[in-house]
Batch of 3 targets.
Target 1
Amino acid sequence: MNPVDFKQLFLRIPPLAELAPEDFTITPLPGYTNRNYRLVNQRHDWVLRIPQPATNRFIDRDAEAANQAAACDLEIAPRPLWRDSSGLTLTPTLDASHSPTPDDLAHSATLQAIVAPLRRLHRSGIRFQGRVQLDRLLTRYYSLLSPQLRERYRLRIQAAQQLLPLLQDRDPVYIASHNDLVLENLLLGQDRVWLIDWEFSAMASPYWDLATICNAAGFDAQQSRRLLDAYCAGGGVMEESLLSDYRNLLQLLSDCWMATLVG
């Protein structure tokens, strides 16, 4: 991976144009599809997100910006200070926030805090730009793999192709969804949970966000049931079997996606 030319980047970003990289302590942050850095000095504390070029083959940046703006209006996402059409963003750091750990997720209070912004988003009635079609995404990512990797994933893809038509009949609802709730995209703040990185946001099944959290946290069946119960508290019925099916399909989608980036 090539080193970042922060001097040139600063010149591209209006809030940074009159400043210099030497004015900041720059610390790398975790990220799979982007390079993220925290920029800190006595006056400023920001997060700089630099998209990897490969991600823009898959991501609609205009839709991301519009969907994130809607999520900001719901007060479940931090509002960027600046962004451009490539997905380069500068966002104020959220004070005293951190991604949940497995120990955090063992507590009912943490699960309740995490499902609160999800319920607000899912039940908002907002129409996000874009609509995810799991069968099309799997087909697309699979087609981008090398012949060797396609052979490795062939049996899993065939099983998914048999399951998907049945899944669509059982789960026809599409709602505004984040669609990438790995633990790094959940930030536990002092009084709420923030959802960050809205690259894959679109209309999707409500199971998508829940299944992603379960997979990212490595939940067993009992832990998944607890998350589902917390989400359904106060109304709503969700099926454990559908959540399990989505977990398997989204794990395959994630594996294919990461393989396209590496390959």
Target 2
Amino acid sequence: MKIFAAIDVGSYELSMKLFEFSGKNEMKEIDLVRHSIDLGTDSYGTGKISQEKVDDLCRVLNEFHKIMDSYHADDYKAYGTSAIRETENTMILLDQIHQRTGLQLSVLSNSEQRFLDYKSVASKGTAFNKIIDSGTAILDIGGGSIQISLFDKDSLVTTQNLRLGVLRLQESIKRLDARPEQVENLLDEIAESQIAVFKKLYLKDREIENIILVDDYLAPIMYKGVEGVMAPSEYVTEKQFDELLNALRHRSAFERAQKFDVSTEQANLMLYSAILLKQMLHSMSASKIWIPGVTLCDGIAYEYAENNKLVTTPHNFEQDIIASAHNISKRYQGNRKRAETLEQISLTIFDSMKKIHGMGKRERLLLQIASILHDCGKYISFTNLGECSYNIIMSTEIIGLSHQEREIVANVVKYNYNDFEYYDTVYSGIMTDKTVYLKIAKLTAILKIANGLDRSHKQKFKDVKMALKDKDLIITVGTNTDITLEKGLFSERAAFFEEVFSVKPVIRQRRQ
């Protein structure tokens, strides 16, 4: 048996869930502690969290630490989300928290946070797998933004982030000095333009039957039910939701707080969340809302259990990341057949060089994504392909990848076309991290070789085998076609590969 604590430092609330792993592929929640601190209003409004709230934050985290100790927790993970991420002094704040509480708080990028929210939903198992078999959208409403992820036939189609979080919207309404009866119309106007663009780009011919709601404001009320308004339920129809929305909009904040047994502040955020959900329901013409009753803490625990082999999951999350990359490539009119050829060749090289490069499963995934997105920059420019590809990848969220991992992919694609920049000439950004720099160099060397083997873009090599012999990587290609072009342009790419790995790639043709 193992006890694990998951801590979420959110924009509006701090929460900690304790879980018990019994070794029977089970994840059982044994305690939940919550405390409201509005960090988001400071962070989104001024760029810094006030000292008073930092003191309050550290006090609550110390209480969490004591509770963890009382349960004899074996391990923990503590994450901050957008309110911590968007402060100007994040590193100073994290150091203060560590010094004053003993807890190591990490900051999730938006794509990492939403991926963990997605995993929290997936932790529901069979119910999740069943619902995403048809057109489904996960609507993840946070304090700073909302994330919309579309599924079709068990596959992630796209995921997009809109800066329509409830705390951010609340700040906008306060600045407008709006009367209570104006709030809904103003929120509709603010949200409608962004949601309309999303609909135009991603919902043209797509039927969405279900919306999965993940938030800390409205979902708990819908899940538990409210006497006289709605019964407890995981599934809510559009009609039932309309009744709840009417119950919210026709009461003052104070009346909502009393009726739904929440604070006045949360009562306002519930209304904002409900209005956003209304907009999405109408845009997608969805008929059913699923409330899985989970939070980010469930996703944190689920990922921990996955990584430590405490639970097994039938859903392949890595395939979701790959599917997301394929859809980004499609959006920028990438060559699917050539991407598949590069994937096959580059991953074969990676697997045959394991003893030499020392990289693992995660780096293999990053190489695969770089292969898929290798030509996205052509959508903008053929002559400045490397830089354009870099900018597209860095401007496009890939769910499940951290900011650092996305920058690794972007650099690998960039240097597949551009001359590689050596460490001593690069003094800013991610490249100053030596470990990351070496990963970029190694993955770039592999992708360059794979690209060189299909220089004509005709996918000549259907059968490629690799064998590492002494200081040579023997690349045997089975083809009867003329490969003079590939051999002639191979030497420059091979030189960089040999420089990085001290292994010389050699092409050998085997006629079929």
Target 3
Amino acid sequence: MKNFHLSKYPSFFAVGLSYRKADAELRGKFSLNVPNIDGLTLMAKSEGLDGLLVISTCNRTEVYGFAQHPYQLIKMLCANTQGTIEEFQESAYVYKNYDAIAHLFKVGTGLDSQILGDFEIISQIKQSFYRSKKHGMTNPFLERLCNSVLQASKRIKTETELSSGATSVAFASVKYMLDTIPDIENKNILLFGTGKIGRNTCANLIKHTGNDHITLINRTKEKAEAFGGKLRLSVKDYGDLQTEIRKCDVLIVATGAQLPTVSKALVYNKKPLWILDLSIPKNVADDVKELENVTLVHLDELSQVTDETLAKRKEYVPQAQNIIKEVQEEFVKWLETRKFAPVIRALKTKLKTLKDEELDFHSKKLVDFDEKQADMVSERIIQKITKQFANHLKQSDVDTEESLQIIQQIFQLEIESE
């Protein structure tokens, strides 16, 4: 396909990097918080782009949009992050048109997640779409595409067991603690950061160990209290962080800061301390691991967890792929229809003009001319002719671009842009 005909720009691209080729440090450089995403979106708008979707999670950063060239999107991504174009090129991927569509389906249905079947990405896609919509940066194509990906995701959840069993980054963290830390149910645990991953980890921890020696600290204390109150957990001030780190056996860091929040100077321990860093970018300084008795584990290591749940999930991948294929084909069919709809509309208008001229001519020439009946018969013929053209354009072995050009030339059509 040369052109989607749904944007003034010729191609739809997906540019990004993920855990597959980029390590946590590099992903950290390209991670985007909400103000950065808004900044990127507004920059794209000011440059005249008319469709953009930005996703940034702990294991990927991706920009989807219409552009003349993918470099337009890459340049804007680098301008709004700490990453450089050279670093991006080392580990990135660029998909175009149908490949970009297929990639979003794979991402949104958990088939490309760091832990297979982890569906947290779908809420990110929803939020990204609403954020773009708020800035007037969506179009019919993007809306239909996101809805199709959501539809495929829902069907995979209900029709397969791809997401069966509790396997996610949060559960992987708990599994690591259960397998590695002796007597975990009685350890003093400190959760620093009560974002989604932090809250899920905490809830999973209580569920699987029954441990209630958990203290919460968040920069905004009210958020920690709102969550901790439900689970009757202890909440401390941000200023108490160093004191609380000294008391705990396990420190879980899940803050959304752009720079490390836990430094070597902050950790003073005389007993074994396990630190789990669930943040991207890393929120625990690398040199913390140099301290005696400290075991520092990052998200990427935790995500390598393999157990029966994951092995079972792999069995459902072919079933999930069939669902994606079905929904994706429906989307492409809609896309093709949208592509030739302006030409069919223009053809119908042209034929109606010819009909009106002929009816006018014959009504003046013939005495008993029944204009109403002739109009009805002509309308039916026009419907049948345009349907024949539409059916021809829908056929998979037809060069749609070439056919559309021929139709436009033969009938000298004036196409209105959508």
